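Researcher: Structure for this, please.
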Amino acid sequence: MRVTMIGTGYVGLVSGACFADFGHTVTCVDKDAAKIARLQKGEIPIFEPGLDELVKDNVEQGRLFFTTDPTQAIKQADAVFIAVGTPSRRGDGHADLSYVYGAAEEIAALMEGYTVVVTKSTVPVGTGDEVEAIIKKKRPDAQFAVVSNPEFLREGAAINDFKRPDRVVVGTNDERAHEVMRDLYRPLSLNETPMIFTERRTSELIKYAANAFLAMKITFINEIADLCEEVGANVQEVAKGIGLDNRIGRKFLNAGPGYGGSCFPKDTLALMKTARDYKAPIELIETTVRVNTARKQKMAQKIVDALDGNVAGKTIAVLGLTFKPNTDDMRDAPALDIVPTLQAEGAKVRAFDPEGMTEAKHMLKDVQFASGPYDCVQGADAVVFITEWDQFRALDLDRLKDALKTPVVIDLRNIYRPHEMAAKGFRYVSVGRP
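Model: Predicted structure, token format:
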């Protein structure tokens, strides 16, 4: 099938490359000429394991194309996906849908013949109705259907999530669109992937409900971690004990400095705004957002407390800046709150991240960036683990201790075992463990 992807951000680029790998002919369109030029040269603008090879292979096979001109791509498409950004709107937290609606206008002007317009971007309930209205107003003669097809891609594991998903959700009542979507995802039938066909508004809400629930699960275990610290319990064992219950599950039960990234912060805010607009506020999610925001400041205070309540003039080494490993995404990363708070207390911050430093340099001021983990900790008064990158999981502890000015380790991801760190002579502070 002929597929056009409007937007070459994280969702658009991964989805386009994966559809091409399924055998479809895919054209990715973006207004950013510099980004398209890089993609045409084989340069990937984001870090996602395996994406560079996937793009390269499908470009060479003649199934994947990049352009700034949407004209032919939209005219020839069986399905046009809207995969543009929906950032939080300033002031009220609602999703900014201007890019979505702009894409709808562009598609309406160019499409020919029956076209399935698919909203891949994360959008509030009712957005599909508005997209349909925009197209009908501009092209009352057009034959088309607007479909909701939310993405469930985890940064760092996005290709596997697309090719081996838990489920595919499609929102449409149009039978012709139903068949187009089945054909697009037919390769997944070999894995017996569940495909959920539902009403468009239901599909839109599924995405928000899923992310809000996971954000709530993270926040829950973080609060349990606080209680564990007070009563002398171990949050990792608590998480294992409850996670083995199939009704709860083991994922997203790792205590830490709070959630961040491109999805959870903005999606919880957007769901809150929608719920308030419809006079059905979701107090659990409102509390989740409030607690998670406070969590990041609380982790900064944990670092200060580990240094006897005073970090003025001290050098703190920070290992890990991105909101999670295997990505260069700094959006709403806990480090963006923790580092400035430490600096406000008078600390000097030196940092290292395997992939996130280029972006971090635009977002964090007065930070010294190191070339590696041992360079980062050299002469520091303490080291803080904020992101659990694999290369931080098996550091030479003797070398780490020798490099530090004082052997203080604050592990906000519980990478190491307390008794092993104590045996090495570290003053070791972790989250939710004795």
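Researcher: Any notable elements?
Model: The chain has a mean pLDDT of 96. The domain at 2-198 is CATH 3.40.50.720 (Rossmann fold).
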